[in-house]
Design brief:
Layout (H helix, E strand, L loop, with lengths): L4 H5 L1 H4 L3 E7 L14 H14 L3 E5 L12 H8 L2 H5 L5 E5 L3 H10 L3 E4 L9 H8 L2 E5 L17 H18 L7 E4 L8 H9 L1 H5 L6 E2 L5 H7 L8 H11 L5 E4 L2 H16 L2
Parallel strand pairs: 1-2, 1-8, 2-3, 3-4, 4-5, 5-6, 7-8
Helix pairs in contact: 3-13, 4-6, 6-7, 12-13
Bound molecules: 6-hydroxymethylpterin-diphosphate.
The site of 6-hydroxymethylpterin-diphosphate has 21 residues, from strand 1 and strand 5.
Length: 278
Amino acid sequence: MPLTLDEILASHRTGTPVIMGILNVTPDSFSDGGEFLDAATAIAHAEQMVRDGADILDVGAESTRPGSDAVSAEEQIGRLREVLPALMSLGVVVSIDTTCADVARFALDTGAMLVNDVAAGRMDDAILPLAAERGAAVCLMHMLGEPKTMQADPTYDDVVAEVATFLSDRMDAAIAAGVPRERIILDPGIGFGKRLEHNLALLANIEVLAALGQPILIGASRKRFIGELTGVAEPSDRLTGSLAAALACFPAATIFRVHDVAQTAQAFALVRAIRAAR
Ligand code: HH2
């Protein structure tokens, strides 16, 4: 049975792994761009992810890969119009991956319950008040700069401390906008303005972010740092590294945004069974 939103928001206290399946309705996402732009294909893929064990479907209509251009709200809504309503009967939490309040409003009107904002409310002032007004949960992610430029020359004195401070500040902003603390998820933003060593430092020190008291979401699936570390050039060949990254930071992080839902569910079924046998 998929987890409820309340169970997801309590996952850091109960040590429950949560699987967020990625549905990119985009022509240009880094690993699956163009694959699910057609509504029927996108819906079929979503249904398969639910059968495979997804607790959340994270739907995005704008790529945030390094170097990508912003997509207008109208264009994002146009890509979502047919797909989103079809996801509401699948029995899982639907998340909208957007930095734009108009897109989030369309998704919340359609039945989404989680706003996944990779800009943590900094790109559009209306998005956090909107989430508050609708009683939606929010995921606040760290990003240095913006997708167009973020990988140009990311530098930090202490990446873990700086990301923790940023997330704490954005959490304060969300609470000030009216989002209850219990509805906030935090994410270090793997690959968003980070070099290999920054991503590794964050994954190695997830406890520091978990100490902020919120559930932590990790989106490492198929990302470039796995290729840099292993030499695997093709994103869809990075499943093993993606699983290792997720398992390495559980249970400090409990929510995993992944492309390969069935395989991630199998890995966590094993982890849970082994922990239960302790
Ligand atoms: N990563 C991507 C997109 N959205 N949201 C959160 N909370 N955390 C992440 O790490 C994250 C995210 C990028 O991955 P993907 O959706 O596969 O590609 P693209 O941005 O090119 O569509």
